[in-house]
Amino acid sequence: MLFNSYIFILLFLPATLLGYFLLNRFRLILAGKIYLLAASLFFYSWWKISYLPLLLSSILFNYLIARVLIIGCDRKWPHRFRKSIFIIGILFNVSLLGFFKYMDFFIGNVNQFFQYDFNLLHLVLPLAISFFTLQQIAFLVDVYEGLTREQRLIDYALFVSFFPQLIAGPIVHHNNMMPQFARLRNKTFQDKNFALGLFTFAVGLFKKVAIADAFAFWATSGFDHTPTLNFIEAWVTSLSYTFQLYFDFSGYTDMAVGLGLMFNIKIPNNFNSPYRSASIIDFWKRWHITLTNFITTYVYTPLVRCLGNITFSKSLAALLLAMFISGFWHGAGWTFVIWGLLHGLALCLNHFWRKRKLKLPRLLAWLLTFNFVNISFVIFRARQWPDALKVLQGMFGFNEIVLPSRLVAPLDFLRSLGIRFGADWLAVAHNEKKTFLWLALALLIVLISKNTAALREKFRPGLFTAAWVTLMLVYSFLNLGNVTEFLYFDF
Prior knowledge:
The chain is mainly alpha-helical. It has helices at about 5-25, 30-45, 50-75, 80-115, 130-145, 155-160, 165, 175-180, 190-225, 230-260, 280-285, 290-305, 310-330, 335-355, 360-380, 385-395, 430-450, 450-455, 465-480; strands at about 400-405, 420. Strands 1-2 form a two-stranded parallel ribbon.
């Protein structure tokens, strides 16, 4: 079930809200919790019910591991025994993710490099496994270090499966989420939270339907359907995907945050205008914030500790390895590995630059950062390396440069430089005026307009706000006919 679908908006969401708050109104607290859990599991099962046993098994196993760790802490069991239990829990989660997400990738590469002929398993990636696995790894680490604890299975199951953030995050922490579910005031319907949640949901839905899906056409056309791209087509293709990815994923996050608010639950923000960043370090503080925090806390920091005496060089090595892991987490493909390593190298260079206290004019720094992010997303988006190479060759001028035929009179002298004029100058997009207008508007939005978090802070219910929300919802509803999945469902 998709957030951007009629069945979710008109049936599932109203039924879930109504049932949850009615049960709590009659002080049936446990029944309300069970109802919300059942609704979340139904939401997850909508795509394919065969995914459900895997999710439930993962929840049960991690809960049992956590209970053993908590009991061991209370009863002062030997540290070595608790550590062994903790390692078993981590290995289970990593193995589960590795088997379903990377086994075919591993077999395929073994076949290619060693000329073997092992059969691929053709495993279908279970929905949301990347996100609920990371969330449970973070939970086990926090339990092991004594930062959180959970006594009841139903509470833990709700923590993992709460439907607004189950499929594609944000990645949440137990000690941030579950106290909110336990708060009695949060069990009653709050009209202010609902209004703010509806506003946030409407903004996210509009981002997805009106903006991201518009760019999806040009990005897909350039990456998947056009065999060769000229200079302008390649840049239109890359920028279209860069904006599609941002508005698609940030739109999902906005909807998740909005849905959480409707249930009086505050889900953390995941984006803070990342395309305004003037350095790659700042970019990763603003892009997919909860993943960055996870990588920093649960990957980078342990790696630094393992390296012994901390030096600048060792910290950069740990950073590079952490970004390699981040890239590989996104997908079982060499393009994701290369993307992660590129960002790791860029971060290392940025830290070295800062250590030397070197500075660039802000506009130049922003231009370098944005173009690096845009170029790296070409590799991130490509299904295979040749697809990335096709776009990159066009962007860097290795293919021809074609200008509109109407410019031949004033710019005819450019023919001597190998520039061609023709009606096919932007075949990747059927309406060039609309394409460039959309690109310009998207750039203005990400650079100038307030982001959703800032809009929430300034939110005031009123006629103007109601009209704005109504317009966004009406436009989105009228364009829900071609329902598309969110990009991060693939990861």
